[in-house]
Structures are given as C-alpha cells and as structure tokens.
Design a protein that fits this description.
By secondary structure, this protein is α/β, with parallel strands linked by helices. It has a domain of about 160 residues: Rossmann fold. The strands form two sheets. Strands 2-1-3-4 form a four-stranded parallel β-sheet, with helices on both faces. Helix 6 packs parallel to helix 8, helix 9 packs across helix 15 and helix 16 crosses helix 17. It is globular and about 60 Å long. The structure holds Double cubane cluster (BJ8). Double cubane cluster (BJ8) binds next to helix 6, helix 8 and helix 17. The site of Double cubane cluster (BJ8) has 21 residues, from helix 6, helix 8 and helix 17.
C-alpha cells in the first residue's frame, strides 16, 4: 500500500487507532484468506482490493469528490445505488463487520444492541472508517428498531437522511415506499445539485443489473460438485460488491466466473467432492466478518451459498421492465427492492421459501441459520426456517453470535457436531 497518511489526516481519521485496525485486518486476512489452498487465480484481484480498501479506493473517492461528485454512504440494500449513480454519485456500503469498533458506541446506544448497529456507530465515533469520513451524506432506513434509533444518534455526528420503510408487502405499503423513494430522489438531487433524468437512471439501473448478473453467474457455479470456489472467497466477492468501482468489479467477477466454469469442467474444486456442503442463511456478514466461514471451512465443509443481504438478497431480484418514464422506473425500483425478503417485513414467508429452494438449488447438505446477537427479527424467523427445512428433510443448525472471537470454540463444537450428524 502506498503512503496515504496525508489523505487519512485530511479525512480526520484517528491515525493511531486506524493503524491498529489495519494491523489487525492485515493479520486476520493473511491467516484466513491467503492461507487457503487451490484458490482461483481470479481471487488475486479481490485480494488486491482488500489490501487497498483504505488506500487506492479511498483515493478514487476523493478524486471523484474533487471533481464535484458526491459520495453516499448506506447501511442497507434498500438504498437504491442506481439512483445515486444516475445523479453522478458513488454509493458505498458501510460494512461495520468488526468487533473493533463496537466499544466506541458505549454510552450512546445500549450494549444489548446488535453488534452491526453498534459497530456502524462505533466506526464513526472512533474515526477509523475512511468510507464514513468520505461520505457527503449517509442514508439510513427504518428497517429494524435498533438501526432506526442509531440513525438518530448518527445524525448528531454526520449528515444523515433517513428513508422510511414499509413493514408489509401490501399495495398500500408499495405506494408508501414509492413516495419515500421519490422523497429520497429530492434529497439526493439537492445534495448533488443535479436533476434525475430518465435516461441517466435507466443507464445506471442497467449497470447495476450487469453487476448483479455477474454475481449471480458466479454463485450459480457454486452448485457444482466439487464446489469450484470456497465459501470464504465467494463471500468476499459479495462483500466487495458494496464498495468497489462498479464497472471494474463487474468485469472482474465475470472473469472469475469464466474461471470457475472452466474449473467445473476439469472437476477442480476448492474442497474435495465429498466435502459436506452448507448453505448460509441469516443476518448480513459484512466485511470483515469471516469468523463463521473460517471456522466451518477449517473443518473441511464448504459454504455453497448465502441467503443474506451480503449474498442472494442483494443479487437475486432483477428490476422489472417498465415504460421508461421516471415514475415508471421508480416504481420498478420499488418492486425490485420489495423483492428483498428482509426479516423486518411481516409476514415474510417468501424468505422461508427462498431458503428451502436455495438449499436445493445449491445442492447443500444442510443449512446454518445464523443471526447476530440481539437481532430479534432474524432470531424470530429462525423458528419458521427450522420448521420448513425439517419438513423438507434438510438438516438445519441455528446459531447466534456477535463479531467477537470469544465464542469461536463454542461455534466450532456445534458445527462439528452438526457436520457429524449430516454424515
Ligand atoms: S435488508 S437484513 S441490510 S435491514 S442484524 S441491523 S436487522 S438488528 S442488517 Fe439488514 Fe437491510 Fe434487512 Fe438486509 Fe437490525 Fe438485525 Fe442488526 Fe440487521
């Protein structure tokens, strides 16, 4: 990595704390990722992206801002990146998947709050996230209660706008969501000083669809036996989808998918053909939350899919065709986003159906349902998920954890017992 200290200083990062974070991340990445065997060549690009996540990519964002473009930070897949793009902005997903930032939220939000929410706030408070610091505006969404209240606090420290979200999937909820998306457009138009044009929006949606199609293609390859890529590597690609340059990322994912398709023909896998196969389902695993996958894959099992927002909930639903007018396109974006079966909706039976069909489509031997501590919506849905999977004859293990390493041994023991049971 080059010397980015001046840029980090200009972004008001806490340099000492930031050095500490980069030191931990570098070590963990080497131990977990670079130690893997038989990785596809195409993963080299993604290793490079991680190594420059706080360097080159941040420099690109600053160059974009220097030319008058805006950077928009988001915490959820419901914030439409094509709208941001069409207004000349770059949207970045604020990952917050590290225990490192959780203590910095102490005293601002109850400790019995989901670690993702605590880390999102913590990364602002401890000034170690160059993506938050580069964001001209943060867009929050009223999905779960914890996030809703966190955004109120975040707004005291960083410009933040909050989109309201429907709780149901009825026609009235759709209307409400469309009007919220239109309000977001007004806000982003004011922020960027541009007017949303139908042609620019359809071009941006086209780019987004190309990106999602590439990720879908990569994930489809994972159904093969042996799986041509580890779960860890596939997860990394989904994590990077939220912050890399869209055109470059799409090209590199397609190159990786080419390689995986060739590996399938040669029967070349990341693990042996007999390795037990797991589907992940649950709360998002934002960068750098690799704990579960690293523990499981060190036991010789391979993850073959993620029913998660860092995974299928992001890439599955395509934008429906429409008449091309601005209104028509915004309604189509609403329909695409309402196809994201987040546990914050009620009822949400579509998610349970998705998990059962994904387990079959990926040739999984079992499902791990995982939710972050204090996430009530996903914990509550785990009961229905278990019931449906048992009915379909698919073994399921429900786990709950936070980002810390404290429960690593306990998770390992439970995963080991589950894998034995599946055999
Ligand atoms: S669309 S899953 S990204 S809200 S884990 S913070 S729900 S308490 S992250 Fe999510 Fe959007 Fe839904 Fe996806 Fe709350 Fe649960 Fe924490 Fe969560």
């Amino acid at each position: 990595m080059g010397d980015y200290r001046q840029m980090w200083t200009d972004l008001d990062l806490d340099l000492a704390k930031h050095d500490e974070l980069l030191g931990i991340l570098g070590q963990v990445y080497t131990q977990i990722y670079l130690a893997q065997k038989d990785r596809p060549e195409g993963m080299k690009y993604f290793d490079f992206v991680v190594s420059e996540a706080h360097g080159l990519r941040i420099q690109e964002l600053q160059e974009h801002r220097d030319k008058g473009g805006k950077v928009v930070g988001a915490f959820c897949v419901f914030v439409p990146e094509d709208v941001t793009m069409a207004l000349g902005g770059v949207q970045v997903g604020l990952c917050a998947g590290a225990d490192f930032a959780v203590p910095a939220s102490d005293g601002l939000i109850p400790s019995k709050t989901c670690p993702l929410i605590r880390a999102s706030l913590g990364f602002k408070m401890n000034k170690t996230c160059p993506y938050i610091q580069s964001s001209d505006i943060l867009i929050g969404e009223n999905t779960c209660d914890g996030k809703k209240k966190m955004f109120e606090i975040m707004g005291e420290y960083h410009p933040t706008y909050v989109m309201d979200m429907p709780q149901k999937k009825t026609a009235a909820s759709r209307d409400m969501f469309i009007s919220e998306l239109k309000a977001l457009v007004v806000k982003l138009e004011a922020e960027t000083g541009r007017k949303l044009e139908p042609g620019a929006l359809s071009a941006a949606t086209g780019k987004l669809e190309a990106k999602k199609a590439a990720i879908r293609r990569l994930n489809k390859a994972r159904a093969a036996k042996p799986a041509p890529i580890s779960g860890l590597d596939a997860l990394l690609v989904s994590q990077i989808a939220f912050y890399d340059d869209i055109d470059r990322f799409t090209g590199k994912v397609n190159e990786l998918a080419d390689e995986l398709e060739a590996r399938i023909k040669e029967k070349k896998g990341a693990f042996s053909e007999s390795a037990p196969r797991l589907l992940y389902s649950g709360t998002p695993l934002p960068l750098p939350d690799w704990k579960l996958f690293s523990i499981a894959e060190s036991l010789g099992v391979v993850f073959v899919g993620e029913e998660s927002c860092v995974g299928s909930r992001y890439y599955t639903t395509a934008t429906p065709k429409c008449d091309g007018s601005l209104d028509g396109q915004i309604s189509a974006i609403a329909d695409r986003l309402l196809g994201t079966h987040c546990a914050c909706f009620t009822p949400n039976s579509e998610r349970v159906d998705d998990i059962v069909s994904m387990a079959k489509d990926t040739n999984a031997d079992g499902v791990v349902h995982y939710n972050l501590s204090f996430c009530q919506t996903y914990a509550a849905e785990s009961v229905k998920v278990e019931k449906a999977l048992k009915k379909a004859g698919i073994p399921v293990l429900s786990l709950e954890s936070d980002f810390s390493a404290n429960d690593g041994e306990q998770l390992k023991t439970r995963l080991q017992a589950f894998v034995e049971m599946m055999k």
